[in-house]
Amino acid sequence: TVDLELETQIELLRETKRKYESVLQLARALTAHLYSLVQTQHALGDAFADLSQKSPELQEEFGYNAETQKLLCKNGETLLGAVNFFVSSINTLVNKTMEDTLMTVKQYETARLEYDAYRTDLAEL
């Protein structure tokens, strides 16, 4: 008892899961890099603010750079929050939703094998 259409759909689901796992891995890498970027921008903002206090002749330029870095840091944190939400959603899709579906597929395959075994036994009788 093999349903070719269902088998095709199951293989498509497995392939889709592999693709989403790849997207999840890339999104996690993006999150790590973005986090590092935001931390660097924060440190740069602090350094420029400190330099603006210690260098009166360049106070305006360093102050402008400090504010720019702080604004970039704030926007980076917003982006980081959105990427984290994306990662969480993809993680749920891959490791819960798709995994549950594939577990159901395994149960289906086991039931199908059992049915075929009983059918074969019945045919022998």
UniProtKB/TrEMBL annotation:
The organism's place on the tree of life at top rank: Eukaryota
Cellular component, GO, one term: trans-Golgi network membrane
Domain AH, chain residue ranges per copy: 1-125
UniProt xrefs under InterPro entries: AH/BAR_dom_sf, AH_dom, Arfaptin_fam
One BP annotation, GO: intracellular protein transport
Gene Ontology molecular function: phospholipid binding; protein domain specific binding
Protein's name in the database: Arfaptin-2
Organism of provenance: Manacus vitellinus (golden-collared manakin)
Native organism taxonomy: Eukaryota, Metazoa, Chordata, Craniata, Vertebrata
